[in-house]
Design goal:
Blueprint lengths: L4 E4 L2 H12 L3 H9 L3 E4 L5 E7 L7 E6 L8 E5 L7
Antiparallel strand pairs: 1-2, 3-4, 4-5
Helix pairs in contact: 1-2
Length: 86
């Protein structure tokens, strides 16, 4: 089984996710999921790249639009290392 990809719905959710990750706050992260501010899609879901925000090393983010599946049309931010070009 392949793990899903997590996406933050906006800049604020992305920043809170990044902060939670930096201090290993799993409860805070899953609170974002529970509140709907972070959502999941299946791994290898087709996306359209919308924006890329560079950060330091692992903190680089890409905004994408979901192009297939049940979340078609939704947009969100995920870590750039999880975006793979076909």
């Amino acid at each position: 089984m392949v793990a899903p990809a997590f996406l933050a719905v906006n800049d604020a959710a992305r920043d809170e996710w990044s902060k939670a990750a930096s201090v290993h706050d799993d409860v805070g992260f899953f609170g974002l999921v529970y509140d709907g501010r972070v959502f999941t899609v299946a791994n290898m879901t087709k996306v359209l790249l919308l924006e890329h925000k560079g950060g330091w090393m692992a903190d680089t983010w890409t905004q994408v639009r979901i192009m297939d599946g049940g979340k078609f049309g939704a947009s969100g931010w995920l870590r750039a290392k999880f975006v793979v070009r076909e």
